[in-house]
Amino acid sequence: MMKLLLLLLIGIFAISEAYKLKKTYEGNSFFDGFYFFTQSDPTHGVVRYVDKGTAHNMGLIKVENGKVKISSDSKNKYGGNDGRPSVRIHSNEKFNEGLFLYDLEHMPVGPGTWPAYWFCGSNWPNNGEIDVLEGVDGNIYNSQTLHTNQNCYMPLDASIFKGHWGKGPGGKISNDCYVNAAGESPNQGCSIQSENDLYGVPFNKGKGGVFAFEWNRESSIKIWIFKRNAIPEDIRSVILFFIFTKFLQI
C-alpha cells in the first residue's frame, strides 16, 4: 500500500535542504519550453485547443512587459456544440522530483472556465497525476488533488493543513486517490480544498500570488499558496515560473 501526503500550507515557507536552479520559464522564451496540445479534450469538454501559430494570431498568447498571458477567445460567439478556441500547453521536459514555483497574477473566472496546473505521468493513472491548481466556473477555493491507481490514500489528520477535505457523494471524505474509488465521484481522487480566497475573483483582486509545490518521491507532496502581499523573501525574485530541483531529470 502506498501512502502519500498532500499538504496545503499557508504561512512561513522554509526549505531545510539546499536547492539549485534547474530550469526557468519566463518572458519571451516562455513558450519555447512547451508544446501545444491540439487533440480532442480528454475530459470531453466543449473546447477547441489550438496550435501555437493560431493562438498567437488570435491573440490568445502574448508577452507584455515580461509577463506571459494565456487566454481563450473571449471576443467571438460560438454555438453550443462549437468548441471555443483555447490553449493547453505541456512541458517539453519531464521531472521526477523537485521544488516548483509558479507566480500567477490573474486566472480566468466565470462560467465555463477551468484553469489548471497539473503534473501528469505518461501512463495515466498508473503513474499518477498531481493537481496543484484547479477549479471551475465561479469557485473561490483551489483544489489540490491526487489521481492514482489503486491502494493510494492520504492521511485523515486535518490539523496538518489549512482548508478542508473535498467530499464525494453523500459527504464522504475523498481521501482515496484511486480514480474509481468506491463512494467517490468518478475520477474524484483525494482532494484538499483551500480557504475561500485563494482562487478565482478574490485571488485576482489580490493580484494573485505564488504556488509552491515540493515533490519528494520518498516522503511527501507539499503545496503552499502565498498571497501576493505575503510572498516570502526567498522567493520574491521569481518573475513567472521557476523550477528548482536537486534531482536528475527522468
TrEMBL record:
<dbReference type="GO" id="GO:0009251">
    <property type="term" value="P:glucan catabolic process"/>
</dbReference>
<protein>
    <submittedName>
        <fullName>GH16 domain-containing protein</fullName>
    </submittedName>
</protein>
<dbReference type="InterPro" id="IPR013320">
    <property type="entry name" value="ConA-like_dom_sf"/>
</dbReference>
<feature type="signal peptide">
    <location>
        <begin position="1"/>
        <end position="18"/>
    </location>
</feature>
<dbReference type="Pfam" id="PF26113">
    <property type="entry name" value="GH16_XgeA"/>
</dbReference>
<keyword id="KW-0732">Signal</keyword>
<dbReference type="InterPro" id="IPR050546">
    <property type="entry name" value="Glycosyl_Hydrlase_16"/>
</dbReference>
